[in-house]
Each structure stands twice: as structure tokens, then as C-alpha cells.
Amino acid sequence: MELVELGKSGVMVPVMGTGTMLWTPGGSISEKTIMETYGACIDNGLNFFDTAEIYGNGSSERVLGKCIKQDGRPVLIATKFAPPSPMNPLTQKRSTVSKDSPKALLEALNDSLRRLGVDRIDLYQIHMPPSKNTIADYMDVMAEAVRAGKVRSVGVCNFNEIQIREAHSALAKHGIPLASAMVGYNLLRRWPETNGTFAACKELRVSVIPYAPLAEGVLTGKYRAKGKRVPLSYKAALYFGHLDITKDRQDSKSLIQRILSKPLELDGKRLEPLFLAMDAIAAAHGKTLAQVAINWLLTNEDVNVIPIPGMKNIRQVNDNLGALSWKLTKEERNRIDIAEMESRG
Ligand SMILES: NC(=O)c1ccc[n+]([C@@H]2O[C@H](COP(=O)([O-])OP(=O)(O)OC[C@H]3O[C@@H](n4cnc5c(N)ncnc54)[C@H](OP(=O)(O)O)[C@@H]3O)[C@@H](O)[C@H]2O)c1
After folding, report:
1. Where are the beta strands (DSSP E) in 72-120?
2. Global pTM value
3. Protein residue with least CA distance to atom 48, ligand 1
4. Lowest mean pLDDT, pick from 65-74, 94-103, 243-252
5. Is pLDDT above 90 for 202?
6. Is 210 touching ligand 1 by the criterion CB < 6 Å?
7. DSSP structure class, residue 83
8. Could you give all domains of the chain from N- to C-terminal order, each with its CATH number?
9. Distant-in-sequence, close-in-space partners of 253: CB < 8 Å, separation ≥ 6
10. Contact at 8 Å (CB) between 282 and 335?
């Protein structure tokens, strides 16, 4: 497995990780299937897993901890701390001092370490920007966690350009590089390329970790089949992104116009030009659409992109593995870009 450095942190990870947001036993996947999927990942060198304290209210970390213990082979773990918020049930469980303070991070970190059954986290990320202007305060506490040996590298998620720069300079005061910025990014969700996120990551040498790299499975093309519908939970996530509450898209449409329109991901007719271009490229390489979509992320030359597709079974692991060890040509990337513009209209 080819390895890459997370930013300038010195931490090396496989070029592709595994997203475990839905690894919550009792949800859409059983514990047995999670264990099998985990084993298939590790067998193939995919030993970098992304989780978060809030996934399944701690259960994704818990089941990952169980897999790590039972399997015994070395892994790299990325997890996330969600700043105090009434929306986060784990906040309510924390001690009084932690309820609304950056120190909550240290308590949350200890809880994550316990659930995962590990001594340190390879990449500890702040899941979303804190509500008040306290990014620097949180990064000071992150630095404390690094100095304590509990965290190897630090990342941010859902931060905009200004917030990425602020986190970077706050950590730099402690001599710690910002390793990664996680943002929603895929073939149909291109705005990090133009809203300053990529520019900041390139300049500061921060790795980009795209979430929803397959647009919740839409980019695999499986919903093109007659009668196959995008599940409601994915639809909700896609609609929420489409509303652009955080204004990351710099969309010229008003909120009302966005509410009344369909996300591109759910508009089969508009997606077809893109799928047809991907079909031709996939056929030329003997690849699947999922493999083309992930390879498109991996072959970005501007920034170091480390996709973490969610994988729910051995078949998906094997399919997504086929995205590695080959490269779309520049000309093929251009063809995909043109088709994507046509789909966007
Ligand atoms: N930081 C954040 O705010 C944030 C937000 C969202 C996600 N994340 C992270 O990013 C990871 C990935 O994002 P995501 O899971 O939302 O979206 P995704 O990777 O775009 O989609 C994953 C889903 O697509 C389907 N799939 C995957 N590979 C497939 C294949 N080869 N063929 C057919 N279907 C396939 C599976 O669902 P089905 O089998 O149900 O179709 C899988 O759960 C998450 O697991 C999580 O770790 C972070």
C-alpha cells in the first residue's frame, strides 16, 4: 500500500482511508459485517480508519475498538471531537467544567481513547468550528494533547479558508503543523476548489480529506438502475448540503431557490452526461464508476487528497481498492470536468 504524509505532520497513512460513520451496530450494518469489512480492509493494507465521538453517540468508536482488539494488527485512527453544543448528546454527559470550555476536548479525548482501546490518536480533528471565536483556544488545548503524547497529529473539519488559516497559525505557535482539513468534496461537490479551501491547503501544505467522496454512493452509478432509489437518510444529507447553510458554495442562488430546487446528486437526468463520460473512461481502464470517482480525487495535482469512502461490506472494500495503483490521464480528467459542467448546466 502506497503511503502519504498527513500534511507536514510526519504521520504516514495509506493513500485511502475507510470512513466508519455508519459503523454503528444495529443501524444499517450488523456487528458481524463490520468485523468482516474491517478484516478485509486490513488484509489489503487499508488500515487508516476515520470515526468520530458523535457517530452513533460513541458506538462507531466502540465497535472500532472491538475490531482493533480482536484483530490485533496495527492501525491508524482518525477521530473527531465535537465542540460543546446542545445538539451533541455527549456534551451533556461531560463534567460541568467541560460543558462549555475548550477543556472539553481533553475529557472527550480520554473518552475516545477509552472507547477505541488505544493509547493515542493518529489524527485528532475538531469536527466543526466552535460557535464562539475560540479556534485559537481550542488549538492551544490540542497542543496540550499532543504534548501529553495522546495525539500524533491535528486536523480540522468543516472549517472555511479563514478558519483553516486561523487554526494553522494558532498551532504553529506551538510548533505543531495543521495536518489536515476535512471537507465535503467529490465530483459533484467542487466548491472547495474555488472557495479558498484548496488555496489555503496548498499554501500551508495541509492534506485535504474529502468526506462523501462517492456522494453517498450516487457516484457508483447504482441508482441509475430502474426502480433503485437513493435511501431517505442519504437524500436528507444531500439536501442539507444543497441548502448551503454555511455558505461554502458561494452559490448565487438564494436560500429559497435552493430549497425549491433538487440537489444535482438526486437529479438522474442531469447526472447522465457525467455518467456517460465516466462509463467510457471506466471501460477503457477495465474499472467501475466508483473506482473512477475515487481515482479522480487521488489524481488531484493541486493538493494532497486522501479520500475516506464509507465501506459497508467486503464487496465495497474490494471495489474501492480497485481505485488504487492506476491513474486517470490529464485528458481523461478534462473529459470528466467538461461532462460535470454539462451535468451542472
Ligand atoms: N467531518 C464530517 O463532517 C464528515 C461528514 C460526513 C462524513 N464524514 C466521514 O467521511 C466518510 C465517508 O463519507 P460518507 O460515508 O458520508 O459518504 P461516501 O463515502 O460518499 O459514501 C459511502 C456509502 O456509499 C456506499 N458505497 C461505498 N462504496 C461503494 C461501492 N464500491 N459500491 C457501491 N456502494 C458503495 C455505501 O453505502 P450503501 O451500501 O448504503 O449504499 C457507503 O456507506 C464517513 O464514513 C465519515 O467517516 C465526515
Report:
1. 76-81
2. 0.95
3. 211
4. 94-103
5. yes
6. no
7. P
8. 3-220+296-327 (3.20.20.100)
9. 261
10. no
**Alpha-carbon gap, residue 155 to 123, rounded angstroms:** 7
pLDDT band at 337 (very low <50, low <70, confident <90, very high): very high
Ligand 1 in contact with 264 (CB < 6 A)?
Answer: no
pLDDT attached to residue 99? 66
pLDDT tens readout for residues 131-185: 778 999 999 999 999 999 999 999 999 999 999 999 999 999 999 999 999 999 9
Ligand 1 in reach of 37 Cβ (< 6 A): no
Contact between 214 and 157 (Cβ < 8 Å): no
Nearest CA to ligand 1 atom 38: 217
How far, in Å, from the CA of 235 to the mean position of ligand 1?
Answer: 13
- How much is the average pLDDT of 238-258? 83
Atom number, ligand 1, closest to the C-alpha of residue 186:
20
Residue closest by Cα to atom 45 of ligand 1: 19
The sign of the dihedral angle between the CA atoms of 303, 238, 341, 331 is: positive
Residue 157, ligand 1, Cβ within 6 A = yes
